[in-house]
Each structure stands twice: as structure tokens, then as C-alpha cells.
Write a structure and sequence with these properties.
592 residues; alpha/beta; Glucose Oxidase, domain 1; Aconitase, domain 3; 4 domains; five-stranded parallel sheet; 17 helices; globular
Length: 592
Amino acid sequence: MPSTPIRLHGRSLVEGAAQGTLLFADVGLSFWGGVDPITGEIIDRHHPLSGERLGGRVLAIPSGRGSCTGSSVLMELISNGHAPAALVLAEVDEILALGVLVAEVIFQRSLPVLCIGHEAFAGLRGQGFVRVEGNRLTLSGRRPNDQWHGTDTTPQPSMPFTVRLNERDRAMLDGAHGKAAQVAMQIVLRMAEIQGADQLLDITQAHIDGCIYTGPASLRFAEQLVRWGAKVSVPTTLNSISVDQRRWRELGVDAALGEPASALGDAYMAMGAQLSFTCAPYLLDTAPVAGEQIVWAESNAVVYANSVLGARTQKYPDFLDICIALCGRAPLAGCHLDGPRKAGLIVEVTRPDPMDDSFYPLLGYHIGGLTGRRVPLIRGLEDAAPTRDDLKAFGAAFATTSAAPLFHIAGVTPEALDPANVLDCDAVLPVETVNPAGLLVSWRELNSARHRHVDVISLGNPHFSLSEFAALAHLCSGRNKHPGVVLAITCGRAVLEQARQAGYLDAIRAFGATLVTDTCWCMLGEPVIPPTATTLMTNSGKYAHYAPGLVGRGVHFAGLADCIEAACTATASDQPPQWLQPSAPKGTPSHV
């Protein structure tokens, strides 16, 4: 006798019905950098589902994580037919839900997204075939013998808006400010409902991540907004695009990427956004101040703005960022409020002494993997005095493995100068301990290269700061790189000009480095990376994680000085940094 189907109920984030073989993982997935937007293959080589294809299967993951561009990748998959049949989540994930909502608007295609909570989610492990319909999930060990086939991709009617609107909001919703503002307000309100926000707030600035080209759908979305007369209503900066807009031909980029990627940047500038093209908008003169309500996308920028600057933004998905920039209004939810900024986890760290600059990106990567969506309060670094560059590297790596939009470091970050300010006095928080053994495991994850030879040195993920240029110029002074090694640095145009005026570029160019603006390493490939290259080296925890899937090369991860040494010798050490080794100098925690 066949077993009785199991039925579970949850919260439908996007209505619809679908069925398929279950693809389950208990680890979150960043669709950008983790899923090929053309084929639907999972390319995150650190993920348990690496190599699997999503098309036609019901994907069950706790939530997304990592990049805000996940919404764009999911929209591409929906438009080209390689999307999962449905998404089943343990937690509400705005990035993934938003990708589906925009596909409804632009392509009239959709898929159901269902949130069932952690307890029910854990019971999905080992299941074979599932059907999602509305707020119900039906589990079966085999395909049910019924007449229901395929996926119903007809968008369902949206629920009546329950968000309180002011007179201007209603005017936009009624179309008085044009078609683009009307559609943008509709999307903002759909997201407000998903987030449980009952009102909107005014924002002072936006940073747009949707200008990254993920495929034809991302360009079609932006150009449709332009045709509808879209104009931003607040000062708006643009993230890195997928090419160096001024030099992509000179760098040998194929026109099949260069032309649409450049056109995408032009489309956002046609909406009134500034030509900034940087993934580090916190390095610009327009950076927000503590308490300022903003709308930023790009995961590392969100984390830095919230954590280091004390500004207030949610981790906004691609496409929602521009919709809010058009309206000037955002859901009053998440990190715009006090409560969600409180710590949900305490992380105890034993600081090594001495250490090099590889410590902070490695620590961020490791802690991000512990947190999920919980905001951590990190203790043990009160006397460490991390620099802004250290916190930039920490935050970018943290944002790669975590879904949380901010972190607190006791005695360091502004809201945790007094740690009591970020603790709920009535809550007993779980505690995680970071020790050298755990950091060594993460170091080995990031070091995927199989041999010591180095072909390419990757610097500037996130974009280089002026102080990083100063440090690099000092390390390069009077030296020349190995002729067989490519050293490339990505940065924003504004910082590059500052570095030129400061006199840092002479030594760096004499060393043999290539300087690339507008784009960053997560979008670079061949021929900037020579086709014959097999191994990269980077000081970025973020790029060390993504590179094996994005460009198919092994990676060495190390501090900046070690990267420059390897650029001269074409050889990397295969050993952890001295501070992480059992034989490290006295005073360094022992490896167990």
C-alpha cells in the first residue's frame, strides 16, 4: 500500500502551484555567484548541492544568503525556463521573493514561494516528490498518480494593499507620476506586505545593485523602466557594472557581454542615477551618516553601512532598490527599526597576536557561516583597533556566508561601543566560540588551489580604498612582478583619481599592475584572466569563496603582503599564515 501523503502548511510569499522532485539542502544559497543564470546549475563549489540543476525541481533551502543580485539571477532563470518549479524556505527571504515578483510584472511568469518554518523544514530531508499549492505543501515518496502535470505559472491576483499610504503614495499608485513610478510603487507595496510593514518611510539616498548584467532579462527590466519614463526621486549611486565601461574593448571583453552590460549602466543613468560604478559606495563623499535612513543594495555595502557607519538599510534585493529610488519610499521594516538591529547571537573570539591582514576576512567568512540570519555581537576584539579596511574586508566576507544585514563588534562598531545597547535585556542569547581550529577549517575552504603556482593576483573585492592603494604602493616600490603573473586591481573611478593625485599609482604601474574601474572581480573573466591560467591568489574572503564557481580556477587566499610576494615569485605558500599555525609565536592561541 502506498504511504499516505504528508501535508504541511506555511505562509505563501508568492502564490501558485507546482510539483516536482525535491532538491533539499540545510545550507542557504546565494543565487548570484552560486547559480549559473543561463543553465540553472549550482556553481557554488562550497555548497552541498554543487553541480545540481534547478530546472523543474522544487528547491528547499533555509533561505538565500550572500548577494543582493540573487533576485536578478532568479528572474533570469524564470525568463529562460531554467528556474526551479517552486521554492520552499524555512525563513522569509525578500531577495528571492522579489525576483519572482518582478518576473510576474515583466514576463508574466512566476513560481510559488512558500515559507514553512524551521521545524517543518527539517522534516523535508530525505523526501522524494512534493507538490506546492498556495500555502500547502504535500509530500510523497513518489510522483502522485493524478492528472495534474507541469507547473502553473499564471500569476495569482495580489491581495488588497494593507499598507497605510500618504497622499503622494496614493497618487503614484494611481499613475499620476507616470507608469514607472506606478509599477515601482506596486512592487514596493508587495514587498511591504511580505515583510509585514504597515507603513512606508522616506529615504535620503539609494545605491543600485541591479545595474549588474545577469542576462537579457536584467537589461529588459531597466530599459522597460526607461521607456515608462522612470526618474529617481532621491540621490542615487550605481554599483559596479559587469565591465569597465570605458575600456572593455581594450581589455578584450567580448562584445556579447560588453555591449549589453554597458547599455545596462546607461539605462540606469538615464533614470538619473550618478555615474559611480563602485561596490564600495561608503568610500564616496556621499556616504551616509549614523541614523540616516537609506536604501542600499550590494551585500557588502549594506553590511558596511549598517555596521560600520550606523546608517539604516535593509539588505535590498536588486530591482527593489531602483523601485524605491523611483518612489523615495521604503517599507518600514527590518533594519530601519530598532528591534531587528539587536543581536541574536554572541560570538566569542580569541584574538591572535601577532596577526596579519588575512585575519579579518577569514574571521568574517567564518562568523558569517555561524549566524544564518541572526545579527551577531562579536566579543574579544575590544582592544584590536581594526581599521576601516579591516572592517570592509570582514564585512564583505561575512556577507558572503551570512544572510544577516549587519554585525556588531563590542567596543568597535558605533552601536556596540557599549554592548548593552545591542542586547535585549530579556533575552538569553546563544553563544558561539571561534577558535583557531575552526578558523583553520575555513582557511582550508578558501584555499582551493591544488598546487603552489600562481597565475593571477586578484585585488579589490570590494573595491580598493585610498589607504589600500597607499599600502600597495609601499609593497610594490622598487620591485617588479613576475612576467608570467597578472596582477589586477579593481576600484571606483573616484578612488582611482584620489590615488593618482596622491602619487600612489606610479609605483603600482611600474610594478606591472593592471588597473580596472567600473567593474569588480566577481564580474571579471577571460581574457583579463588568461585562458591558460589555472590558479588565482586573492586577499578577499568574498572572492576566494566565489571564484571557483565563477571562473573555474583554484584559489590561494592570503594577506596583501603575501599576495605581492607571490606576484614576484609566481609561487604561493601552501601553509596557513603564521598566526594560525600550531608553531606560531608565543602569545598566539594554540591550534587544537
